[in-house]
Design brief:
Rossmann fold, alpha+beta
Length: 680
């Protein structure tokens, strides 16, 4: 496999318009409240002529209202950005009409009417890029799920739910329809076709399966779909498939069959990111796993059959999403992660069973979140963050010639930012392990040891990247409070090669724990931190690893914050919505490999815990159910006499979705670490 040179260093940015305003002095000490001033940029879409870039800004609402999203545009030549919608109207799935006259998007009108489209349901709307009043395109009761505009702009395809009740015990399922059942009632997906000239609305694909993604072929004659038999999450991992529907005769071709899955490292893969080649003779998609590297696949039509082959990735690049073909040719682009950075990569000449070289379209210390091209593939726009800037929109002429189009978070210019660096140490078995180190803005090397927080990322098939982050899990905030913060990219993390990622399979609660412990010792040996004032925290897999660390290293940490963490792998397999995660890492089902489930569970070593621990969990978490957190609390509080507190957030899923709850978590964590690390 080819090697990709990872360019590290400053990127020279050519600023335009308001984006180039003078930077104020950094005088502001970051506070928890600052998290909610940050605007996230998403749903990037470049106009067909490349002159305008549309995107959405997501902002925090007060209290328990969560985030709101609105549509914006900015010219690629530079100039002030313009807001097109207000009051959280939306902007999801933003798509340009081929003539550039309209922006189509999914949004909600909250006017409070009794009937769609202004009853708060999600509908498709369109709006001129010059602004004005959004026009409703769909008016479907209960709203739409997703949509795709045909390449000629004359037809809109959208999906809606159709409930199906099984015939077996159907009378009882219908009679007691307010109860929750394991199976028997399924929300299948219907694809509807709306003619945008005659406004005739009809069924294009009947509701026989659940559709998770759809894409219209360039000639408009076919739909590519990712489908499952049921709408439970478990069916997406291992039971999903890619289908191609011929819209002229309704014929369905299954592209990915079971024989194709049988050759993979794991059968529990998630299909995603459908992308038709411009000539309509190939379809790209991705498959991602828990524990194994994601892969890009291409299905090419040859003699009526759809042959499958894998697209090679340069080492150590990990696929990070965003499949898109560039212009009218056969260049396939995606976000590629390597060494804690994410770039836009392009695979040239993907055709005829071969592929050309892979090149970087962006370079530097960037974390790219989104990208898009104009119709010809000449204009590349991208959203990224750096170590000193939150996410913004940029237009890229070459990797070295970049123009910043937006200045979405100007308040960050006045913040005292942490000193962020990509560091490494020797982990288990002599392996080099990397991580992100954040030090207080005013820290001077050699000025003495600091209290420290070890922040553990989730996944574990994920990573901590080098861009600036301020969020409730510790990054940005803890250095502002005087702590050193280390975020280890332990074994099992993405961006350091497939082998580094997959070495964790079969060794959870073992190899990555030793990698993290080695990172803590490295911090102490460097003279950066006080060995008696080290805390550990994380959410999801980071919460699981927090539980692992306080059992494996009972004397290493003076305080811990465990968020939504797994305590017992059997309970996790039996109750979470994506059990393939556990099966992959445990290398089998509980009755096939019970010793692995026990070894991978911190529950059975809780008697070693001494660390004062605060526990956070969403009350309606389907991914790591609340039982784990309650069991950890019971053990520490009632049987082991370890200082502990349990904080449940009623109704919250796997992540905390409201400003109030996120603020509560941050304030609890700060108070907990201040008490047990600093003695306040």
């Amino acid at each position: 496999m080819s090697k990709l040179t990872i360019t590290i260093g400053a990127l020279l940015l050519a600023f335009a318009g308001a984006a180039g305003a003078a930077t104020p002095a950094r005088t502001h000490d970051i506070q928890p409240e600052d998290c909610f001033t940050l605007t996230a940029v998403e749903n990037l879409a470049v106009s067909p002529d490349g002159a305008t870039v549309a995107y959405t800004e997501n902002r925090w609402a007060d209290g328990k209202k969560g985030r709101t999203s609105d549509l914006w545009v900015v010219t690629a030549a530079g100039g002030p950005a313009r807001r097109l919608t207000f009051d959280g109207f939306g902007g999801g799935g933003c798509t340009w009409s081929p003539d550039g006259r309209w922006l189509y998007f999914a949004g909600r009108d909250k006017a409070g009417r009794d009937a769609p489209p202004r009853d708060g349901t999600t509908q498709v709307w369109r709006l001129a890029p010059e602004g004005g009043t959004p026009t409703p395109v769909t008016r479907f009761a209960d709203g739409i799920d997703a949509f795709a505009l045909a390449p000629d702009g004359k037809t809109l395809y959208y999906t809606v739910d159709r409930e199906k009740t099984d015939e077996e015990f159907g009378d009882l399922l219908g009679k007691y329809d307010d109860l929750h059942y394991g199976h028997g009632v399924t929300d299948l997906t219907e694809v509807r076709r709306l003619d945008l000239e005659t406004w005739r609305d009809e069924v294009a694909v009947a509701a026989t399966r659940v559709i998770h993604d759809l894409a219209v072929s360039p000639d408009g004659s076919r739909l590519a779909l990712i489908t499952t038999a049921d709408n439970e999450q478990i069916f997406s991992e291992g039971w999903s498939r890619v289908e191609i529907v011929d819209l002229t005769d309704g014929k369905v071709t299954e592209v990915t069959n079971q024989a194709w899955r049988d050759g993979h490292k794991s059968p529990y893969g998630w299909l995603e990111d459908l992308a038709w080649a411009p000539d309509g003779k190939a379809l790209a998609f991705a498959i991602s796993y828990d524990g194994y590297a994601s892969d890009i696949w291409l299905s090419e039509e040859t003699g009526g059959a759809w042959a499958l082959r894998k697209i090679a990735r340069p080492d150590p690049v990990n696929y990070d999403g965003g499949l898109e073909w560039r212009g009218a040719g056969r260049t396939l682009c995606y976000r590629g992660e390597a060494m804690a950075r994410v770039q836009v990569l392009a695979v040239e000449n993907v055709a005829g069973g071969t592929q050309g070289r892979t090149v970087e379209l962006t370079k530097g210390d960037l974390v790219v979140a989104a990208f898009d091209f104009d119709r010809k593939g000449a204009t590349l726009a991208s959203v990224w963050e750096t170590t000193t800037d939150a996410n913004d929109v940029y237009v890229v002429a070459t990797p070295e010639k970049v123009r910043r189009l937006t200045h979405t978070n100007p308040q960050v210019d006045a913040w005292k930012l942490p000193q962020i660096s990509h560091v490494s140490w020797t982990g288990e078995g002599g392996r080099t392990v990397w991580g992100i180190l954040e030090l207080p803005s005013d820290y001077v090397k050699g000025s003495g040891p600091l209290p420290a927080i070890v922040e553990l990322h989730g996944g574990p098939t994920a990573s901590t990247r080098i861009g600036f982050r301020l969020w409730m899990y510790g990054r940005g905030l803890m250095p502002a409070r005087g702590y050193a913060l280390l975020s280890p990219n332990y074994r099992g993390s993405t961006g350091y090669g497939d082998a580094f990622l997959e070495e964790l399979v079969g060794r959870e609660n073992d190899i990555e724990v030793k990698d993290i412990s080695a990172g803590v010792h490295w911090l102490v040996d460097q003279g950066l931190v006080d060995a008696k004032k080290i805390g550990v925290m994380g959410w999801s897999n980071g919460g699981f690893l927090t539980d692992c660390m306080i059992t494996a290293e009972p004397d290493m940490f003076a305080a811990a914050s465990s968020g939504a963490g797994v305590l017992d792998q059997v309970i996790q397999w039996g109750t979470e919505d994506t059990p393939g995660h556990v099966i992959n890492f445990m290398r089998g089902l509980p009755w096939q490999n019970p010793d692995a489930y026990r070894a991978g569970s911190p529950l059975y070593r809780l008697d070693r815990v001494k660390t004062p621990t605060i526990i956070h969990v969403g009350g309606n978490d389907p991914r790591v159910p609340v039982a784990h957190s309650r069991a950890l609390y019971r053990a520490l509080k009632h049987y082991l006499n370890v200082p502990v507190q349990l904080v449940e957030y009623p109704g919250e899923p796997h992540g905390l979705t409201t400003q109030r709850n996120r603020m509560a978590k941050m304030q609890w964590d700060l108070a907990w670490f201040d008490k047990y690390l600093l003695g306040k």
